[in-house]
Amino acid sequence: DLAEKVFVFPQETKTSYVLVRAQPEQPLQNLTLCLRSYTDLLRPHSLFSYATKAQDNEILLFKPKPTEYRFYVGGKFVSFAVPAGRAESEHVCASWESATGIVRFWLDGKPWPRKGLQKGYKVGAEAAIVLGQEQDSFGGGFDPHQSFVGEISSVYLWDTELSGSAVRGAMDDSLLAAPIVGWRNFPHRAVGEVYLKP
């Protein structure tokens, strides 16, 4: 149980990351990803990277600049503009449903306008899941200039869409639905210089 703990990524590198040792049992037609991050990076960086052998950006949460999040499904993305210069941790959730292609995005529990992406797509189940790096190949191909520096915590991935109230529950690690990946039971391996701290 990693409640009250954070992963600290202390420096720019291509050798440090967290490998998440979990994957879905079958291809995903719905998903919700949530996590909390804290960084002062101004350059592009990757928070959560889910790659399959067919598609390195199968699911990707990427921040190209402080005022934008990009959420990828199946190699294509939608962007969400966010306020700049808050100098505090940010809790982000993004959900996607295949049937409509609708993507929903929340920042600190507040919903943003919905967008559309990859209607009818299925997310592959055999995945390499990495925190703090962006995969350009299955389980690797890291670029230090896209690496994360700072703190990541409260990482969750579900095979369902979440309601607004469930998103607020994810913010303080009090959840009802069982996730594929959950912070209260987080199977992982830290590689290189990444530290788990209270």
From TrEMBL:
Record text on cofactor binding: Binds 2 calcium ions per subunit.
GO biological process: acute-phase response; innate immune response
Keywords noted in UniProt: Acute phase, Calcium, Disulfide bond, Metal-binding, Secreted, Signal
Gene3D superfamilies: 2.60.120.200
Any one Gene Ontology cellular component term annotated for this protein: extracellular space
Residue stretches making up the Pentraxin (PTX) domain: 3-198
Pfam (any one): Pentaxin
Subcellular localization: Secreted
Cofactor: Ca(2+)
Signal peptide residue numbers: none
InterPro entries the UniProt entry points to: ConA-like_dom_sf, Pentaxin_CS, Pentraxin_domain, PTX_dom
GO MF, one annotated term: metal ion binding
Main location: secreted
Disulfide bonds: 34-93
Entry similarity comment: Belongs to the pentraxin family.
Assembly mode: Homopentamer. Pentaxin (or pentraxin) have a discoid arrangement of 5 non-covalently bound subunits.
Name of protein: Pentraxin family member
Organism of derivation: Psilopogon haemacephalus
Lineage of the organism: Eukaryota, Metazoa, Chordata, Craniata, Vertebrata
